[in-house]
Design brief:
The protein has about 375 residues and is an alpha/beta fold. It has helices at about 15-30, 40-50, 60-70, 90-95, 140-150, 200-210, 230-265, 295-305, 335-345, 355-370, and strands at about 5-10, 55-60, 80, 100, 125-130, 155, 165, 170, 175-180, 195-200, 215, 220, 270, 280, 285-290, 310, 345-350. The strands form five sheets. It has a seven-stranded mixed sheet, sandwiched between helices. A hairpin with a 2-residue loop joins strand 7 (about 165) and strand 8 (about 170). Helix 3 crosses helix 4 (about 90-95) and helix 3 (about 60-70) packs across helix 6 (about 200-210). Bound molecules: pyridoxal-5'-phosphate. Pyridoxal-5'-phosphate (PLP) binds near residues 62, 63, 89, 131 and 194.
């Protein structure tokens, strides 16, 4: 693969343009551009049906949804979270004046390690903000047990977990709220977009007020809400995307299977195990490169880039290493040994629905080529 024809870690899924035109025509005809219009309402219902949840509020993006979720539950003080995520997870806490308390991750799931949460709880702790990293489910039972014992709320950052299901139902039904992202890079995208999944109609109503400036009717504002509304264009696009998403996930699954087979016998290269208890949506393909591999992660990353293959080091640096977090007592590498090691070893390989078999093979060859 030449650098002139690069392969990126992902490529957004776009349905045929002609299928989108009738949706645009409808918007042009009815002149409803936003404020909970017909496509917005249809997409909320369609996503509830698809995901197997009862109450979902669309948002303009996942970050505003996270910020709003914390407001909706009136979280205060300290919140326990993971350093191993996209920076928006912890930023949502700072935007609410909350103090992030970082806890290390489990070496197998790369999610918040429930065994280490209790030691980080103080009288100021009010909530836990775990992330289903790469869509791999957190240990929701252990986290809920801790939350119940200490009377904490749980908000899941489920930005990577679109369509992830366990035998008993959607992963999104755990905790007090779950937050999705429909960013362009996600399995299901609306260009930009996101959602909050609420457990009941009353909570959804509160979330809906908060995302609309706090308005409850034309003249009544009950909260200092934000503008988190998804536009009709984005919602219409989401409705069209939903028609294609199963096919897109199937292709991701096939690529995932090829990588796993081809890398199974490679010393020092570990493909992240996905929970056998859940149906994955294959949003990422992370590998961990350890000292038995002929080159380290940095060298592999560089070597792939020279061949036009743009893998990404998600998640490096850790959130706890960014300037606005690194002075927190919980941010030190000594407190986060597993996350610190994994951040040095991880590389997410390209995976997206339009990736051809030849492109997958060129990634495989570029990785295996390091061993020759
Ligand atoms: C774990 C995680 N949380 C939050 C976000 C923020 O979502 P958005 O980009 O839709 O604001 C993202 C990704 O973009 C993410 O990966």
């Amino acid at each position: 693969m030449s650098p002139n024809n690069p392969i990126y870690v992902t490529q957004p899924y776009l349905p045929p343009l002609n299928e989108f035109v009738p949706y645009l025509q409808t918007i042009w005809d009815n002149k409803i551009l936003t404020n909970g219009g017909p496509f917005h309402q249809q997409l909320e219902q369609a996503l509830c049906d698809y995901l197997g949840v009862k109450h979902l509020s669309l948002f303009t993006n996942g970050t505003v949804a996270l910020v709003t979720a914390l407001q909706a539950l009136r979280i205060t003080g300290e919140v326990i979270t993971t350093p191993y995520s996209f920076v928006a997870t912890a930023h949502s806490l700072l935007w609410n004046g909350l103090k992030p308390v970082f806890v290390d991750i489990d070496p197998h799931t790369l999610n918040l390690d429930p065994g280490k949460i209790e030691a980080a709880i103080t009288p100021q702790t009010t909530a836990i903000l775990p992330v289903h990293v790469y869509g791999n489910p957190c240990d929701t039972k252990a986290i809920q047990d801790i939350a119940d014992r200490h009377r904490l709320r749980v908000i899941y950052d489920a930005a990577h977990a679109f369509g992830v299901r366990e035998a008993s139902g959607s992963i999104l039904r755990h905790g007090d709220l779950s937050v999705l992202s429909f960013h362009a890079t996600k399995v299901f995208n609306t260009f930009e977009g996101g959602a909050i999944v609420s457990p009941d109609a009353k909570t959804k109503e509160r979330v809906d007020h908060l995302k609309n400036f706090g308005f409850v009717d034309e003249v009544t504002v009950i909260e200092p809400g934000i503008n988190g509304k998804m536009s009709e264009v984005n919602a219409a696009f989401g409705l069209l995307q939903l028609k294609h998403v199963n096919k897109a996930i199937q292709r991701r699954k096939a690529i995932d299977a090829i990588y796993r087979t081809r890398f199974a016998a490679v010393d020092g290269l570990h493909c992240l195990d996905f929970s056998t208890q859940a149906t994955a949506s294959h949003s990422y393909f992370p590998i961990l490169v350890d000292e038995r591999f002929p080159v380290d992660r940095e060298a592999l990353h560089r070597s792939l880039a020279e061949r036009g293959i743009h893998a990404r080091r998600y998640f490096y640096p850790l959130i706890s290493e960014f300037p606005m977090y690194r002075d927190l007592p919980s941010a030190g590498p000594g407190n986060l040994p597993v996350a610190t090691r994994v951040a040095q070893q991880v590389l997410c390989l390209p995976i997206y629905p339009a990736m051809t078999s030849e492109q997958v093979e060129s990634v495989v060859q570029a990785v295996l080529g390091q061993c020759r």
